[in-house]
Design goal:
- Helix content is 62%, strand content 0%.
- With 142 residues, it is an all-alpha fold.
- It has one domain (5-115).
- Helix 1 packs antiparallel against helix 4 (69-101) and helix 2 packs antiparallel against helix 4 (69-101).
Length: 142
């Protein structure tokens, strides 16, 4: 049965806020995972650019004694070469974690704001949130 206009507006704001929080949680989780996994690439490329004479040419001791232009170029190339497999690893970790935590099931449809009804997931079904029609067929992946 349809909700009243005030109730519909309140539920729309609640569902919009909840969906925004779930989106921000997904974004934060993705940022943390990609930062941790891509840290070796970030470090290698940073030192390569920092010690190259035509880019930043730092006066740090390790740049003068250990890294010359050829080794700095090698670090830059190595960093960009190892970036591709690490991106795949980071995406696999994020997808696995999102699937295990069932984060994509937590997004709520706005039809819950328009009509009364819908059922919440049972605690035994493993979902972290309240989802309408929480059956195996409606999940993002099995």
């Amino acid at each position: 049965q349809p909700r009243s206009p005030c109730c519909c507006l309140a539920w729309t704001l609640l569902i919009g806020t909840m969906n925004s929080l779930v989106f921000l949680l997904n974004l934060l989780l993705m940022f943390v995972i990609f930062t941790v996994v891509l840290l070796p690439t970030i470090v290698v490329v940073y030192f390569g650019f920092q010690c190259h004479s035509q880019v930043l040419h730092s006066s740090a001791r390790y740049c003068k004694s250990i890294l010359d232009d050829n080794s700095s170029s090698a670090l830059i190339i190595l960093g960009f070469v190892i970036m591709s497999p690490l991106l795949v690893v980071a995406m696999a970790i994020y997808c696995s974690l999102a699937r295990r935590l069932q984060l994509l099931v937590c997004f709520q449809p706005y039809s819950l704001a328009l009509y009364k009804g819908g059922r919440c997931c049972q605690p035994g079904q493993g979902a972290l949130c309240c989802a309408r029609g929480c059956s195996r067929q409606l999940k993002a992946w099995v």
